Amino acid sequence: MNTRNKEGPAPTRTERKTTTEGGIPDAPLTAEEQEDFSKLEGIVAEGLDKMEAGIRALVEIRDRQLYRAQFTTFRKYVETKWSCSVRRAYQLIEAQR
After folding, report:
1. CA–CA separation, 76 vs 84, rounded Å?
2. C-alpha gyration radius of the chain
3. Contact yes or no for 76/82 (Cβ under 8 A)
4. Are 55 and 96 in contact (CB under 8 A)?
5. What confidence tens digit (pLDDT) does each residue in 1-22 have?
6. ∠86-90-58 over CA atoms, to 5°?
7. How far, rounded to the nearest angstrom, does the alpha carbon of residue 92 sit from its chain's CA centroid?
8. Which of 45, 62, 69, 92 falls between 20 and 30 A from 51, CA-CA?
9. Coil, helix or strand for 23?
């Protein structure tokens, strides 16, 4: 007998909240949620800044072939050093542009 819900998974806490016509939740943030939101936005901003700097460094390593003392190709460098596919490395580089 199949006991799975045919309508899909139960809605998440966020999905249960009603929204206004423009899609903005009706329920305002509590003081605790606002504090958490501010802290988390700071973490996101810092992380994005660091990610952009990291990608710029990766571009320079690639362009100047600074990996060549230890690796024969950029592919081998990113796959070995960063456990990242060269495809993903190029996706990050393109997304940063």
Report:
1. 10
2. 22
3. no
4. yes
5. 444 455 556 656 555 555 667 7
6. 90
7. 11
8. 69
9. coil
